[in-house]
Amino acid sequence: MKTQRDVVMCGITGFVGQRAEMQQILQEMMDLIAHRGPDGQGQFVEGPAALGQRRLSIIDLEGGKQPMFNEDENLVVVFNGEIYNFQELSEELKAAGHAFATRSDTEVLLHGYEQWGKDLLPRLRGMFAFAIWDRSAQTLFCARDHFGIKPLYYYQAEDGSLLFGSEIKSFLAHPSFKKELNRDQLELYLSYQYSPGENTFFKGVKKLLPAHWMEWKEGSLTVERYWQPEFSPEDSRTLEEWEQDISDAMKESVQAHKIADVEVGSFLSSGVDSSYMAALANVDKTFTVGFADKQYDETTYAQEFSKVIGVKNFAYRITPEEYWENLPKIQYHMDEPLADAASVALFFVNREAAKQVKVCLSGEGADEFFGGYNIYKEPFTVSWYDRLPLWLRRAVGAVADCLPPVPGVNFLVRRGKPLEERYIGNTNLMGERRKKQLLRQYSGKVRPTDLSAPYFAQTKGQDPVTRMEFCDLNLWLVGDILLKADKMSMANSLELRVPFLDRKVFELASHIPTKHKVNASQTKIAMRGAALKTIPEKTADKKKLGFPVPVRAWLRDERYAATVREAFNTEAANEFFNTAELNKMLDQHMSGKRDNWRQIWCVFIFLVWYNEYFVKR
Fold first, then answer.
1. What residue segments make up the domains of the chain, in order of their start?
2. Is 10 among the catalytic positions?
3. Whole-Å CA distances, 198 to 209, 238, 478, 536
4. For the domain 10-181+200-225, what is the CATH code?
5. Which of 529, 539, 37, 587 lies closest to 241, judged by CA?
6. Bridge partners, 55 (sequence order)
7. Which of 43, 251, 380, 407 reaches 20 to 30 Å from 360, CA-CA?
8. Catalytic position from the list 10, 142, 471, 602
9. What pLDDT does 9 receive?
10. What is the β-pairing status of strands 153-156 and 126-134?
């Protein structure tokens, strides 16, 4: 008999707080995230509680409709995600006396919460954001998955109302929501290129962080962490044994992530992660995007690789015009500004895939688990320099920090500081001196290292690569990688599943010693070895490039630079930035004197986002 799964990939939103016309308010909130679930909707409105869900039909079952109730209808849930071990949990709950009305993973949340309360959360394997209203206790309980694959935001209004949702934009429809810019977040964004930590660009709106729950009762809100990832490398197995273990774990995870009653596709770039994923998944269709400029085009590789593994590849080449034209729409869907230029390409590959399938597999998480970023090679390169006295390296770095950004300067600046002072994640775009030059109002109240420091404290005594991985797992992965994965897929009503980001896979990866992850010349050593069992050597050994985007070149073309210059000279730009410095930065880049494209793009994207949320609306 076919396993039944309910319709859960969607968006959820709602609030707690008695007021007039609750149903209408909830409907308007739900309408703002209709793209997350265009196939249907459900509401629960009673007393002070209003819970709503927009639905994307992955499996269209009557038994899986939401909001869903338990047996006595005391608990009601709205849920976004997939629980991959729901069958195992349902058997355990049935043995404990629970009666199930459906075979859905949503119902497991209800009975699991009845049986174990908050202790349900560490038992779950999957991606999820859900809210449970207890009608008798008048309590709202919300939780987010272990790695932050699915988003959840919340806002406490001045009148005591609590708003929650998959996207911040749903809050705009609530009368108690006061839309204000959180200017402090801008300073962090200029360093990170995304909005890091629990705060957002909207004053008072917070992210429920990964592996956290929150509970609202009688106007009081409690937020706590229920699980903490830990890396504990052990040198108990050979490289070959690790490779086999990874191979076995990934095969099992991919199969668990493929369960659906609709066709599942896979994204395919030129990298080992997506190639390995597509080969393991044995899907019928892969999806790739590239650019007309061959230097930035991955479509030929993807088509060749798809032939090797015997699947059909659908490739789309993005034109510069449509890339630029879609920036406002993309930043609106992001909720907060994201200056990762590859996120725009992700929008297009999701759009193309959504024309053919409703579910796609993607390779997020492999780099953080298995040591994939090139920056992880740093502890093994020019290691003699690190043996110089710290005071000397600090002095050299301080001088270098005042020099123009020519080759070698960044090395001296970075290596002039201990790891925990220089590393905030995969991107560290602007230092405090540069932000002072650009910003009209610089406070320095929150430094980037204030966010990364707790993660370095938790990994004190471990090797540098493990410490960087742990920092990235908690900041970069959730703030950039998973943000764009969720928002760009849901903008196109496509469900994205990420088999690398699985608890069983992490349990294995967390024990792999660093020497089997990265060295001076290689990244993802053990994972590449595992991939070799499935894909050709030239693909498994391919150097990590990231997704190449021609923004650097476009910003030296007057056609596109003019769009940026126009934004740099608006009233909005003048409110936040020293516009003379912005124009100077652009002029330097256009003339070829400096490579400023990342800083230009970061400021420009903020202004595009700000225009969407605070000028147009």
1. 10-181+200-225, 550-617
2. yes
3. 6, 40, 11, 41
4. 3.60.20.10
5. 529
6. 10, 40
7. 43
8. 10
9. 61
10. unpaired
